[in-house]
């Protein structure tokens, strides 16, 4: 019997070519999801005498399973070919893409070619089981992780810190001496060393478009750092009002800080990390935009997250860790929180980018009174009052659009708000404005 090399079969003259065979396994799995490697056969298909011991078979087994990610469990056995003993490594796996020592390959005829970034992304999209955050980073090791960052996370998450390896393993962030992408992007000393897109771009514009740039800054670092920098940058570049509580002054941003923070964190949780693009914050004169690469995950539409509050996370492990550290609301409440605090917030998908927009407003000392006034109101009434607070000239049609209920329901809620003395109409239907009555609040 004489075998021939093909897209699913590869020959190696001896086990000295173990490392080189890893490329072939990655390439064959990524193309056909199964194949065979033979050690002890020349390219022309003729067998070569090799000394094969139990140790030889163990070495082959260990190198295959530990250096291919995701892990595979090949069947390794000896066969007799033309009277000569050879080693057959039979493998299969559908969890593509597979990497060999951190690199990805594809089989073309009987050769292995390294995948380009575009080809790799396409391959990832075809595998519904692929998760960037749970995949292992073959270029990183435990020494790249900052112990101080992990200890701070344990403190926030109320986890007892024992040692770095045990803690990371317990959090599903480390296995077989390799950290996951989530571990690196959250806790590495320098995540930018491994990911070009581990950065944040912020800018302030002098108009409602990008014609005049007043300020521009770039930040790199772990996700905790980038979230903090994004929030600080926005707060530094928007109006801050105040109210007096007893003897103390309380600063109030023109856009609710909880809503801003939730939108920022959502951008980092839901972004597509296989894209080389990055999260950006743009402060315009009339609005703030928070942008992240990657549209909604799992086939969700804008109306699903706004009206039905359905949530599917692209990076579930990262989301879980941020939740443990008390950075985010429980699953599914993020959009609801944003709209509850900022009813005019808008969500869009444009050219594979998800955008959250907050409309800016000049706030006054009455904003704190408004917050107290809406306590106890039903959700739709609360949102109507907050809409009026942000824009006293808002129309009923605009309320219908933002609140997501019928025009009749808007009318009924306005009647109730007028009856209990919370709002009143000043002037005609066209050209008039709404007024929020805060006189009764002490």
Which labels suit this protein?
442 residues, alpha+beta, Methyltransferase, Cobalt-precorrin-4 Transmethylase, Domain 2, Heat Shock Protein 90, 4 domains, six-stranded mixed sheet, four-stranded mixed sheet, 15 helices, 20 strands, elongated
Please characterize this protein's 3D structure.
The protein has 442 residues and is of the alpha+beta class. It contains 15 helices and 20 strands. The longest helix is centred in the first third of the chain and has 15 residues, at 18-32.
Q: Short summary of the structure?
A:
The protein has 442 residues and is of the alpha+beta class.
Oligomer: single chain
What is the number of E strands? 20
The CATH architecture of the largest domain would be: 2-Layer Sandwich
**Which descriptor suits the 3D outline?**
elongated
CATH fold-level topology of the largest domain: Heat Shock Protein 90
Q: From the alpha-carbon coordinates, what is the Rg to the nearest angstrom? A: 29 Å
Beta strand % = 15-25%
- SS class: alpha+beta
Cα-to-Cα separation, first versus last residue? 95 Å
Spatial strand sequence of the major β-sheet? 12-11-15-16-18-17
Average pLDDT score: 86
Major sheet: 6 strands, mixed
| Share of helical residues | 25-40%
Number of separate domains:
4
Query: Low-confidence parts lasting 5 or more residues at pLDDT below 50?
Result: none
Q: Kindly provide the name of the CATH class of the largest domain.
A: Alpha Beta
